[in-house]
Design a protein that fits this description.
- This protein is α+β, with helices and mostly antiparallel strands.
- 32% of the residues lie in helices and 27% in strands.
- The protein has six helices and nine strands, in the order H-E-H-H-H-H-E-E-E-H-E-E-E-E-E.
Length: 283
Amino acid sequence: MKNIPMTQETKDAAQQTRTYNLVLQDEVRPAVNLSNSVGAGVAGGLVGALVTSAIDSSINEDRAIGAFGVAAPLLNSTLDLNFRKLIVEEFNPVLISELNAKDTKESAETKFLNDKKVKAQISTLKEGEAALYLFTHYQFFDNFKVVLFETNATLFVAKKGKVSVSKPDYRNSFTYISESVGNGGMDSIRLWNDNNADLYRTTVNTALTEIREMLQHDIKVAQEEACITGTRYTRFNALGEFRSVGKITEREGNRVQIRDNNGSLVNLADNLLIKELPKECKA
């Protein structure tokens, strides 16, 4: 998904913003290797939403059942954790203060909107109106050692009485990757689940706070951003682990924030850093 940066013109034009904050899943997805056949459709669509049903259908049934079996103790311990409520509590103040959101909900949406429905909504925007689509997914990776949270944000704005239904005015993604826990499999699930899943619950709250801060930083126009050093690093998507390149913009303890070369923001533990690339900061 290509980044489209926020501009002052876009912010000024968004005098009133409709919001659609989507979380399709009821619980964290287990660590499952997906078929390569879904690679082209992982993050398609106008709003970059992961089409969960398409991904689920591509997973080998035996592997999926086995993965849910491993995760079952944690899933059972966190039935009371309302991710959809937590995310709107974290995001709504930013949407109201930065984008003049007027219709924020008390819980995230659950219904996926296809491109046809999104275009129909966008086409009704009038001068001064905007539509913001947020989509968040979260999943275990690396045999349950880490959990990833990712939010895609896409904004359409009516400018001078016109709005493009095919090209957003702003778009980016924000990713939080937890620190590695345990040796994988049941050992990692046991640690995530100890003390009524205290570590997992804390990680969820921390991830949402960090993503909210990344989103707020990104939609503020002309924010200065440090470049500590360039880096090659490991990250994850729906198909598993891959390497990417970006600039470290913040460092706190053993965690860093990276502006990936595709424009997205990623917050992760420094053990996922592979190699410093100082020349990236001189570009």
